[in-house]
Every structure is written in C-alpha cells, then in structure tokens.
Amino acid sequence: MIGRNRYKNRVELLQGTLDMLILRTLQWGPQHGYGIVQALRVNSGEVLQVETGSLYPALHRLERQGWVRAEWKQTDSNQRAKYYRITAAGKKQLTTDRTRWEQMVAAVAAIMHGEPEGNDA
Length: 121
Fold this sequence. Notes:
The protein has helices at residues 2-9, 15-27, 33-43, 52-65, 88-113, and strands at residues 31-32, 68-74, 80-86. It is built from five helices and three strands. By secondary structure, the chain is an alpha+beta fold. It is elongated, with a radius of gyration of 18 Å.
C-alpha cells in the first residue's frame, strides 16, 4: 500500500520542464547530479523527487545542446564527481523557457479559475 501512495504522489515532469528546473538549479552554482536532485527536492518543499533515470539523460541532453558544461572534480567527501555548470547559452535558454512556463501557468490558471465564456449552460 505504501508503494501505491508513493506513486500517486509522484510528480512526473515533462522533459522541457525538467530541463528548465535543472538550468535554474545550476544558476545557483555548479553542482553534481546528487546535489541537483537534492536542490530540486528541498526547494520544491519535498514535492519533486527526480530519479537518476530521468536526471542523467536530461543532463546529457543539456550538455549536447551546449546549455551546461561538465567537469570532473573532488567532492567535499573526497570522491570524484562530475560537476555541471550553466553556460551563457543555457542562461539565455532558461530565460526563454521561464517566459514560456509563466505564460503556460497563467493560461492554465485562467481556465481553472475562470468561468466559460459564451456558454449558456
């Protein structure tokens, strides 16, 4: 039963939304994969649980697009990890994505909170 509740509460992110959230997280500073997952979880109030099976393909996609750059570094616990940083192109893309996202949120909110127009029913 616990597994079902966990699944019901899981938010599935569209590919573009996850990319935008990763770029936003990297605006706060370079981070390794686990750090990105933690930042998304904590900053979403524990709502967004991004699995590694979604995160790493997204990071590789962002890297191919030239929106993030990666380099191997030592972590605080002296382990080797790939750190990702947002590029200038990534910052530009994030601005575009954020504008589109805000328009989409406003459009959905208008539908959810509004009354139908031209409907006499």
